Fold this protein.
Amino acid sequence: MVKYFMPNLKITKYVSDWLKRAEDDIATVEILIKENISPNSICFHCQQAVEKLLKGFLAYQEKNVRKVHDIRMLVSLCEEIDKEFSDLYDEADYFSKFYIETRYPGDFPEFSWQEAKEAFEITKKIKEFVLAKIK
């Protein structure tokens, strides 16, 4: 069951939309795990969820949300606002391989179920962290 973030009065529709889209990616991951489908897709959707959570935080802070997919860069932008985001750099580095490498043919790596499950655990941790900053 998808549990969308319920915005408080301070949160705009734009912020809420970022968070809902992140939640959609998380719901997709849950289905893929339950059905034992594609670790690569799980890793991609985890990366997407984290990207959207970070962009949701930036939008909440009324910052320009850049059209980038680099999690490390997004963490850096968030850290400029809140120094505690520096705790997410290791996680950001973990996700760096999941966007480009899962989307374009040629060097398609095969991610393991262990990597997929680890990506999901990190995603849930980042979700809790970001939502705590927004509430």
In short: The chain has one domain: 13-134. The longest helix spans residues 13-34. The chain is about 65% helix and 0% strand. Helices lie at 13-34, 39-60, 71-79, 89-95, 100-103, 113-134.
